[in-house]
Amino acid sequence: MRAVTLHRGELRVEQVPTPEPGRGQLLLRVLRAGICGSDLHARLHADASADIAAEVGYHHFMRTDQSVILGHEFVGEVVAYGPGCRARWKPGTRVVSLPLIKQDDGIQMTGLSERAPGAYAEYVLAAEDATMEVPAELTDDLAALTEPLAVAHHAIRRGRVSRKDVAIVIGCGPIGLAVILMLKSAGVRTVVASDPADARRTLAAQCGADIVVDPAEGSPWTVAADGHIMTAPALYGAGIDALHTLRAVRGTPWTTIMKAAKRAGIGPRGPVVFECVGLPGIIEQIVTNAPFLARIIVVGVCMTPDSFRPTMAVNKEVDLRFSFCYDPAEFHDTLHMIGRGKIDPTPMVTGVVSLDGVADAFEQLIRTTHHAKVLIDPNLA
Question: Which superkingdom heads the taxonomic lineage of this protein's source (predicted)?
Answer without folding.
Answer: Bacteria
